[in-house]
Design brief:
Blueprint lengths: L3 H6 L13 H5 L3 H13 L7 H7 L4 H12 L3 H19 L4 H7 L5 H12 L3 H7 L4 H4 L6 H4 L23
Helix pairs in contact: 4-5, 7-8
Length: 174
């Protein structure tokens, strides 16, 4: 039989806790918020996307959003946007006859030269070579892995330093 006087003296810290938190929250951004922000990114690739703007879509602070987004996707919001821009660009390069500079603008790059440099770093070939090769090119089937240094123009990020982008402060535009 359990002595009620003994139970009353047991501190709460010693008692087991049975709080359940959904796995999607523990692992990162909840799935509904992740879907909402990725849809927003897809719909707005052609323009500058700021971290603050993406965080507002999920009703979170920029810092908290960036941490949970990276936990959920494995990449920072900036890198995710860059990969989506390059994915959209490579699709346009193989499917349309638009000029490379108009494709660059359509996916959010300010200049054709920055676009060409970024495509080359991420796929291993220039946009014109990618277009010429079409769907046969190896880079289309397996995009080249990129490091943070490659994405920031090789300027050498300091380890542990949070770097949102290399253009204007606070934005994700390229």
């Amino acid at each position: 039989m359990i002595d009620s006087a003994t139970d009353a003296r047991t501190p709460l810290a010693d008692q087991p806790r049975y709080t359940q938190v959904p796995q999607s929250v523990v692992g990162g951004l909840p799935e509904s918020k992740l879907r909402r922000v990725t849809a927003y990114i897809e719909a707005n690739l052609q323009r500058e996307l700021r971290l603050e703007e993406l965080a507002a879509v999920t009703h979170m602070s920029p810092y908290h959003f960036a941490r949970l987004f990276k936990r959920a996707t494995g990449v920072s919001p900036h890198r995710f946007v860059m990969h989506r821009r390059i994915d959209a660009a490579t699709a346009l390069l193989t499917e349309s006859s638009s000029s490379i500079s108009s494709i660059a603008s359509a996916v959010g790059f300010r200049t054709g030269s920055h676009f060409a440099t970024t495509v080359r770093r991420m796929t291993g070939v220039t946009p014109s070579a990618y277009r010429s090769a079409g769907n046969r090119h190896e880079a289309h089937d397996q995009p080249r892995a990129t490091s943070g240094a490659e994405l920031d123009g090789g300027r050498g990020s300091v380890p542990g330093q949070k770097r949102l982008h290399t253009a204007a402060p606070g934005g994700l535009d390229h």
